[in-house]
Specification:
The chain is mainly α. It is about 80% helix and about 0% strand. Helix 1 runs antiparallel to helix 2. Keywords: Coiled coil.
């Protein structure tokens, strides 16, 4: 299964919305940090592909 950059970005956005619903602030912060790292990697990958 191939994952395109737009699909990966959409998946990260959905994960962000789901994480916002969490009650545990520590877990929410950990997920937010992970998402930011992944978004930065996607940006770098997009720059390499263009």
């Amino acid at each position: 299964m191939k994952i395109t950059l737009p699909n990966a970005e959409a998946a990260l956005d959905q994960l962000q919305r789901d994480a916002d619903k969490l009650h545990t602030q520590e877990l929410r912060k950990a997920i937010e940090k992970y998402l930011e790292d992944q978004k930065e990697q996607l940006k770098a990958l997009r720059r390499l592909m263009n």
